[in-house]
Design a protein that fits this description.
Keywords: DNA-binding, Sigma factor, Transcription, Transcription regulation
Number of strands: 0
Shape: globular
Protein name: RNA polymerase sigma factor
Structural class: mainly alpha
Largest sheet: none
Order of helices and strands: HHHHHHHHHHHHHHHH
Domain RNA polymerase sigma-70 region: 26-83
Distance between the termini: 24 Å
InterPro entries: RNA_pol_sigma-70-like, RNA_pol_sigma-70_dom, RNA_pol_sigma70_r2
Organism: Faecalicatena faecalis
Length: 280
């Protein structure tokens, strides 16, 4: 850890609200994107970011500075997300077998009544963003986290291992096994892979009919996208990605919809924060 970052941590622990806000803002967007991939829906991700921010604030005094602040913050986030039971998909787990069967039966005509005046291409893009995140829910939480950190965030295996409490070699071995499992599913079902039978545009009508896609509420389209130069600041290049994994590496990263400044100000002034300080 650089001396400057260490000093900032000390200032935040000692009550400097501006420095604390700056530290939280530095990791907020990537924590949101990690939460989105781990939990499968924008609303669950936004709720998770708030919970994780509270954990970062209350646990900051325990940070030993043996890694960078961002690595430590992601460790706090992954611990929360792997064990999170509040999300929709934690309560209704998916499997690749179920998802494959659903794809096989899930095509209906995209009628004007179903599209509700929204362009088919726009709805297909929304479905692609949703479907890829939902498909990740077919992995168990730890495997999902390993896959997301390595192939979507392109994080270095040493850093990923540090976040998850694994050696770099153990992390790479587990990632390789998970990647093969996901690639097999993508190769058979996902049209984005170039070989799969599914097609986002053809699935739009079925997704609307089954209430998985709402033309009147396009959650992903309303999110602000981060540009590549911003996301590159958070991650390091890893190993060469295989062709099927590129389905995920091409997905956009999003800016967190949480207003961190407002959230932080309310939290620090709240009665519950005084209780947290006394207990920590």
């Amino acid at each position: 850890m650089q001396k400057k970052e260490s000093e900032l941590i000390d200032q935040a622990v000692n009550g400097n609200k501006k420095v604390l806000e700056s530290l939280l803002l530095s990791v907020q967007d990537m924590i949101y994107n990690l939460s989105l991939r781990m939990l499968g829906s924008p609303q669950d991700a936004e709720d998770a970011v708030q919970e994780i921010m509270i954990k970062i604030i209350t646990q900051l005094s325990t940070f030993r500075k043996e890694s960078t602040f961002s690595t430590w913050a992601y460790r706090v986030a992954t611990n929360y997300l792997i064990n999170c039971k509040k999300s929709m998909f934690a309560q209704r787990p998916l499997s690749f077998e179920f998802y494959g069967q659903d794809i096989n039966m899930g095509f209906v005509p995209n009628t004007e009544d179903l599209l509700q005046g929204v362009e088919e291409e726009i709805l297909a893009d929304e479905l692609k963003a949703s479907c890829t995140n939902v498909m990740l829910q077919c992995l168990d939480p730890e495997s999902r986290c390993i896959y997301v950190l390595g192939l979507m965030f392109k994080a270095d295996s040493r850093v990923c291992g540090e976040i998850l409490g694994l050696t770099a070699e153990a992390y790479r071995q587990r990632l390789s096994r998970i990647r093969k499992k996901v690639a097999a599913f993508l190769g058979e079902y996902c049209g984005l892979s170039g070989t799969g039978k599914c097609n986002c545009q053809k699935r739009v009508g079925y997704a609307i009919l089954t209430h998985r896609l709402n033309p009147g509420n396009l959650e992903y389209r309303s999110l602000e996208k981060l540009d590549h130069s911003t996301t590159a600041e958070f991650t390091e290049a890893m190993e060469e990605m295989d062709r099927l994994s590129s389905v995920f590496t091409q997905l956009p990263q999003y800016r967190s919809p949480l207003d961190a400044k407002s959230f932080l100000n309310k939290l620090l002034k709240s009665d519950s924060m005084d209780v947290i300080r006394m207990e920590s």
